[in-house]
Structures are given as structure tokens and as C-alpha cells.
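Anyone else keep sequences and C-alpha cells together like this?

Example one:
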Amino acid sequence: MYALHSDAMRLRKPGLRMKLELMLWVVTLVALAIAIASRKYRKYGLVVVGLAVMTIVAVVVLSKQDNIPPPDPPSVPTQQSRRVDFEQLHVDKLDKEDPEAKNRIAVSEVRFDQIRPYGDSQPGTIESVRARLYNDSARFTLTDYAYYLMVQDCVEKVCTTIYDQRGMASTMVPPTQARDVTIQIRARETGEAPLFKLLGTPKIILSPSGTRSYKAALVP
């Protein structure tokens, strides 16, 4: 058993395989010539040819097995954490129960004013934005609003947007009234460096992008 294993290991060397194949082909051709030329030794010549051909085939098979690359390791899908937006899930649920809620108050009837940034933990950072939200509708109470927030950094009269955020929040603003609201700047999930760093003067642009006015039975 050990001898067979040693022979197989030696056959895996390219130089030895080529020499062995060449020798076997020579033996095959000589045996075939003898079998054709002499009736007396034809039987033995054909037996030698058969054995040589079988040996050549075995050597070729072993060489092909050596050239087969190992199978790739199974790929493991990368798992990415996703932040679950519970506010959006809640809004989607209410939209199914009250499909007309998003049409009762037009976006043009809602506006922000007195927009002020807040942030004292680190210089040059903003933790939240406070504003006064006006509901100019004469009939319906604003129960939820969607917004688009942009933070610009103004240096030498040149303002560059360095952060933006979309979101939705709940409120309760009766017709033709206003309420103060606070929008938190989303922090990094890792809790390391802040999302942005102000080099100059901040300029906050806050605009409504959607409204909801749910029926009283759906509002907590």
C-alpha cells in the first residue's frame, strides 16, 4: 500500500510523467510493429500494446486530477444592520386605515419659521434643529408631517451643503395655529465621530414634503 502511494506521488511530478509517457509510447509502437511483422509474436505484442495504452490513460487521468483547482470556499453573505424606522411603519399602518389623510392638507398649507440649530456637546456640530411649524389649513388638524432638512456651511459668503436628512414626525397642530417642533440630527450608529463638522456659519434649510391629517379616532 505504501509502495503504491509512493508511485502515485512520483507520477505527480511533471518531468517524470513526460518521461514515462514517452517510454510507454515507444514500447507501444515497438510492440505494435512486432505484432504486425511476426505472426508468432503477434499475440504477445497485442497484449503489450493493450497494457501500455491502459497505463498511458491512467497517467493522463492522474495528471488531469492534479490540475483541477480546489473548490472555492462557500461564500457567506455579508449581514448589514438596518435601522428599523418605527415611525414610518406606524404611518404606513395609519395610511391603510385612512387613505385620505395625506390629501386633507396640502403641502403648500404647511410651513416652517424661526429655524434655529442647537448643539453644545462639540464645537462645530449640530445635535438638533428647532422650528415653529404653521398649519394654514382652515379645516383640518395636522397630525403628522414629512420634512427635508439641509445643513449648509457658509465660509466667506459661500454656502455648501454638508448634510441633508429626510424624515417624518408626529405633531398636533389645529387649523390656523402653530407649534414648536424639534428635529434631531441622526447620530452615527457606531457613536464615533459626528456626521459633519462646521467650519463657518451654519445655514439651516427646512421645508415640508408631506402632510397627514388622520381622523380623530386614529390619533392617540
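And example two:
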Amino acid sequence: MLNRYGTRRLLAALVVLSLGLAFPVLGCSSSGGGVGSALSRVFGQAFAPESGGDQNNTVPLADGTVVLLQYDEDGNLQSAEVGKTDADGNFVVDVQVQAVVAVVVNGMTNDGAVDISGLYNPDGMTIEKDLNPATSIACVAGISAIGDDSITEEQLNEARVQNLEDAAAEYLVANPDFDFYDQLDVDAAVAAVRSATNDGANAAAPGAFT
């Protein structure tokens, strides 16, 4: 199921899949986690495309539900709602130090329901990254690569995440008619990014999407 995106919303299938064993809700400014566990604070702004899905016209995703996706010791993807974005789309999430997590913001724009997401490697005290269509495509690419056993969550390190995000940004530039609200367009972008980067193992070759 991790490889199928039949719904209009980008990561809805992933979130629904992982609701069975939810982590404790941490809250947007939580200091949760086990006693003595190291915490990493990830934060940023979520930006969603508006006006026909044009990825170049983005707006802050205000009052969105922030969902944390992370893997348990058995490699199962789990989720928890951990707060809301503010009026400017800002979010803050505290997570235990681990290989990789995904932050998903579910919200609404004038074009409808949307999920904006991104991958983080919480291995330091603070990690800042804004979320946008490119980070969202990279996030689906990385999570789906783990889901079909192409890579492990430990392999989805900072370098792989960066390769996926750079490729996704390049794909959007090369495809100006891309519509983030069209599931077929999203599926095509994810497949192209995965293929061009070998699931993030390398940077996309120059002109890979032209």
C-alpha cells in the first residue's frame, strides 16, 4: 500500500496506513520522549501551491494539522498528530534522535485539501527546513522506497534526502505545467525522481528531466 497513491491528497495513504500504532502526541513545543532520551527539534514553515496548483505560487499553510511519521524498532511506520501550524505556516516538533522521520502538514488552500511534507534526519539538537512541493515529492519518494524494500530507513540519510529534494526541485523547473493537486502528476514526479537518483543514492544527472 505504501506504493499506491490513489487518493487526491499526497500522503493520505501513508498516514492512514500508519495510524494503527500511534506514538504519543508530543505537541508543537513538547519536550516529550523517554527519560534520558536525546531529543531533536525540527521546525520550519509549510508552503502549499495555490491557484491551479502552480508550484511557483505558494502560500503559507496556516492552521494545518502537523503529523509526525517515524519508524519503530521493527521498521513499521507509525504516526501521531503533534500540533498545528500557526497563521504563517510555522511548526515545531520535538522527536527522539533517530535515522529519519517525516513531517506532514495536512491543510486547506483555496484549491482544496493538500498535504505538504518533508524528510528530516534528527541527529542534532535543531534542524530547520521549510516544506514545499519539492520536499513533498522527495518525501513520498523516500518513504515509498523504504516501503517497497528498495532501501532501509537507515539508508535514507541526509545525503539521500538532499539528492531526492534537489531532483524534485529540478523536476518542477523542467515541468512548468506540473499540478500538485493532480495525483497523476504527483505519481509521475515521484517515479521520475526515484529513477533519476536511484532512490537518492546519487544526484540526478544534468538534464535528467528534460
